[in-house]
Amino acid sequence: MFIIMKNHQSFVQIKWNAFALLAVFLTLVISSCSSTENRDMDASEIEASNPENPNKGPKGQFQFVDSVFNFGQINDGEVVEHTFRFKNIGKGPLSIVKVEASCGCTTPKWTKEVVPPGGEGSITATFDSNGKGGPDNPLVEKSISVDFDNTDRGFIVLVFKANILAKSTDGAQHNGH
Known about the structure:
Helix content is 22%, strand content 36%. By secondary structure, it is an alpha+beta fold. It has two domains: 1-32; 62-165, Immunoglobulin-like. A four-stranded antiparallel β-sheet has the order 1-3-6-5, with no helix packed on it. The chain has a four-stranded mixed β-sheet with strand order 2-8-7-4, with no helix packed on it. The radius of gyration is 33 Å and the shape is elongated.
């Protein structure tokens, strides 16, 4: 009977040790979930805490000479070009990371180098008006989306417009009358 009682005491001791270990484990899990490290962060905190982010210093700021340009009246089939110029008026460098035209008739070219504070850059839009003219000289509006890096305002949409004169059927250009 003494042997059975001793085995019973060992069994009870093992159960209590397991219970204590489980209690410690659950306490650690619960306390780690309520840690202040697990909280919602806004975008600037995420960006600043990213060890791979090289842009922790001052930000650049772009200022365009114009963001809307009107070519006026052009002839259907004419290829026209406009350069949108900007200056970095911020305290840090900036760069253009992506430029996207609203359609295939527009081809953008842009400054690929980093633009330092006080430096200038540009986006040139080349527009092919072929097939865009109509009997009422329609106003055509196209856009170019520009994404910047290391700026507070990360993008801008540049717009250009043109009234496209229809091709005349006799080979002479339509004069709008």
